[in-house]
Amino acid sequence: MNKKKVSLLKEKIKSISLELFNSNETLSITTNHIAKSLGISVGNLYYHYKNKEEIIKDIYLQMSSEFEDLNIFDNVMKSETPFTELSLMFDLIGELFWKYRFLMRDSTLLIALDKDFKDIFIKNQEKRIKQIEILIEFLISKNIIRNISEEDIKMISKVSWFISAYWQTYISTNGELSKNSIKEAKDLIFKLHLEPLLVN
């Protein structure tokens, strides 16, 4: 099998897996379901991924890469209207989280079941919280939000990340995820943590 065909099939495996995971409980989907949906043998699937966990990790890394491609933090800091840009960037994040909604819905489960996934998730989590801290410090430096203590900056950053990362887990315990439920996470962060700090 040439490299191009391998790459194309691997992308198809990720794409179909993402659809299946989004539409069903992650635990209910097996490599057999994925292979059947693709019309390939399980052995062929295992040539590319040794198990379902490997597929999930690859999808998570893909989502993280797409997040980086948004250049959210740079775009906000370079904008003439940073707070407005931040709101727009949150909308883009919402679209991304909707695309990969099973990861947002089932993150705590995936962390509990797979140490490798947990390690990747925690590393990414630490990075995002630090980025939020830098962003808040930037908004303070531009006199967009009022000055607050370093302790409060860290607290707001952690809580903002918590809402972004785990709101869908909470929603899924009471009903179905929707684009509107993802937007609720943005509204919570802005109304509870950012808008009350606005200087004007």
UniProtKB/TrEMBL annotation:
Keywords: DNA-binding
Domain of life (superkingdom): Bacteria
InterPro entries in UniProt: Homeodomain-like_sf, HTH-type_Tx_Regulator, HTH_TetR, TetR
SUPFAM superfamilies (alphabetical): Homeodomain-like (SSF46689)
DNA-binding region: 30-49
Keyword DNA-binding: yes
GO molecular function, a single term: DNA binding
Domain spans labelled HTH tetR-type: 7-67
Name of the featured protein: TetR/AcrR family transcriptional regulator
Organism name: Aliarcobacter cryaerophilus
